[in-house]
Each structure stands twice: as structure tokens, then as C-alpha cells.
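Entry type: protein chain
Record version: 2
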Amino acid sequence: MRLKDKVVLVTASTRGIGLATVKACAAEGAIVYMAARNEARAQGVIDALAAKGQTVKFVYNDASKPETFTTMIDDVVAAEGRLDVLVNNFGTSDPTKDLQIANTDPQYFLDTLQTNLNSVFSASQRAVKQMREQEKGGSIVNISSIGGAVPDISQIAYGTSKAAINYLTKLIAVQEGRNGIRCNSVMPGMTATDAVKDNLNDSFKAVFMKSTPAGRMAEPEEIAAAVVYFASDDAAYTTGQTLAVAGGFGLATPVYGDFINAARF
């Protein structure tokens, strides 16, 4: 029960990595708030986890309404009196529009950066002001992407926004460390979520897997496990770190994918 009675807020949490994080934190004893737009979908999760004796609640957040990234913090604090952990999981990209630099609409690029960065900045800024007032500070965990560390042949807006989030993580860690606030980021590799299944074709996934030493996609629960570590007191002396949970993607020689299946290996 590493998160016993800690108040945790997770954005974009009704499916994928966000949902896995909600479940993992609840299983560790946290009071978890699902920050989401679809209350009906969240309620199904809340009821299922309540049947296990776990405490999960809903708080409204809609990425199309930027002000909700701060009001969600206010709502949680009003209900619980504190916020111990903020997990900034929200992020968006449209692979049909987020292409190479030559083919990506400039306004789409700027809009994606605005949306992805503001979701982290605004929520973190409001959380920091609350956590400064708490005796034990707090922990902010940003869900970035391996694409924020290893350049891709497309998704220039998404990759740039995630790289910026990694740096923002370090800035928050440096600026708020003396206030008892830690900030770390998790960089998932390709993860078996609905978003990946719906937006990436099999040939692309196969190429990606060929360059991943683990030889498979991550499960959302494996990303959530890293979040739980950063959220817990096990990581009390860990801040400003970006942890790749990507099966080794980006570590190997560039010709790894071409040679790994050769007979001599």
C-alpha cells in the first residue's frame, strides 16, 4: 500500500495508460480522482473499483476547455483538503495531420504544442501552489513519450511537445525542490492501448517492434507501475528524471532492426 490515503489526480483517465494508472494507484491505497470529460464512462470504473474496496472519484476536465485544468485541482482540494500527486497524462496528436516538417500545417503544429504543453503547465502551476502549503509537499508525474527523446520520421508536433514536457519536468523539479515538490516524467514506448490500435497500421507497428529490443509493445500496466514508483515515497529522493519505459527502443545501433533477425544472431 505504497500510496495509502494519498490524494491522486490522473488526467485523461478513462482508458489506456490513464485508466491503468488509476487502477494501479487505487490498488496501492490512494484516493484517486479520474479527471475526464465522460462522467458516465468514469462512473463504470468507479463502481467496479468500489466493489474491491478501493476509493475512486470523478472530477471534470475537458481539454477543449483549458480552464478545467486548473478548476479540476480546485475541485479536488475543496473536497479533500489537499493534493498529493498529480499525474499529467493528457496528450493529443492526429497522425493524419501531424507529419513531417514539410507537410504539417503550421497552425496545427502550434495548436498541438499549445494543447499538450498547456495541459501540463496549467495543471502543474495550480498544483504547485497547493503543494507548497502542504507539510509533505507533493509529486507531479508527467506522461511524456519516447518520441520526446528519440526523433521520429513524422509527428513533428507531438514529438516537439513531449520533448518540451521533458524539459518542463526538469524546470519544475529544480524550481520547486526546496518546497518539497518532486517532478518526474515517464516516457512510454509503443503501448498496447486503443489509441495505438485505432491509429497505427500493422506494418508501422511491425517496423517499430523490429527496433525494440524487448520485441513487443508495452502493456498500459507497465507504464502505470513506473508512475506509482514516482508517486510513492519510494522515490522521495528522486526528482527531475525522465524514465523511458520503452523496451529498449532508441538504445541500439541504427542497424539493429535490420540485423536482429539475421541467421548469425
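Comment: The chain has a mean pLDDT of 94.
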